[in-house]
Amino acid sequence: MTDTARAVLGLALTTAVVPYLPCLGHRALTRAAFAAIAGAWVAYPLASRWQVWLVVAATTGFAAITPVDRRRDPLPRKVPLTAVAVMAVGLGVGLLLDAGGTWRTFDDALESDRAVAITLGLLAAVFPLGVAIGILTAPWAREVERHFGPSEALPRGLQGAGAYIGWLERSAIFIAVVLGHPGAVAAIFTAKSLARFPSFSREAFAEYYLIGTLLSLFGATAAAVGIRLALGLSAT
After folding, report:
1. What is the three-class DSSP state of 157?
2. How far is 230 from 155, CA to CA, in rounded Å?
3. 42 with 8: CB under 8 angstroms?
4. Which residues of the chain have a pLDDT value below 70?
5. By the 8 A CB rule, do 34 and 24 touch?
6. What is the pLDDT of residue 220?
7. Given its phi and psi angles, is residue 232 left (phi above 0), alpha (psi -120 to 50 degrees) or beta?
8. Domain ranges of the chain
9. Distance from the CA of 67 to the CA of which of 44, 90, 107, 233 falls in 20 to 30 A?
């Protein structure tokens, strides 16, 4: 992947991902900060060219003014804070034990096309794709509600758990395909289906479940294949 292709792909993914990251909340400042950090990472090989920094600045400004869907389930605040704390502690320990080696590893990560493409591709497959699937399946969700009579209860799980299951499902599928193990997708699909099997007694719910799951599977797989092709790898 050329530096220009990396910048174009990375900034496009950053723009698509930022509005849908639940850990950023609804504050323009946090969205802009994430976009600025991601943009600087993407543009690192082109750091000597001022034009690319104008594009990064524009991406950051766009992220700050982009409206956010307030209906989606947010991550608990402790999750992103804990992740940041763990990374900070790990970096601090590495600098204390081997500053030179730690910086070389950090520099390699900044320059790695694979790290940029896989990280941003994973975020795109998990969050924006989840929102798109929710929009596409909304008519069927209402249809399922109508198929259940007033005395029947629509199968429901823990509040917000469905979104987390979707995030984990697409993450696992994306990682499996990117790493060249598409066969693992069958195991993921089977495990999710077994967990939902008791609810399949109603045909309407079973069909709704299959539509959403297959959209998730195909979308995450397509995203992973696209990232592999962008990195010059085979589709599988």
Report:
1. coil
2. 41
3. no
4. 25, 68-84, 144-145, 147-161, 192-204
5. yes
6. 92
7. left
8. 3-112, 126-230
9. 44
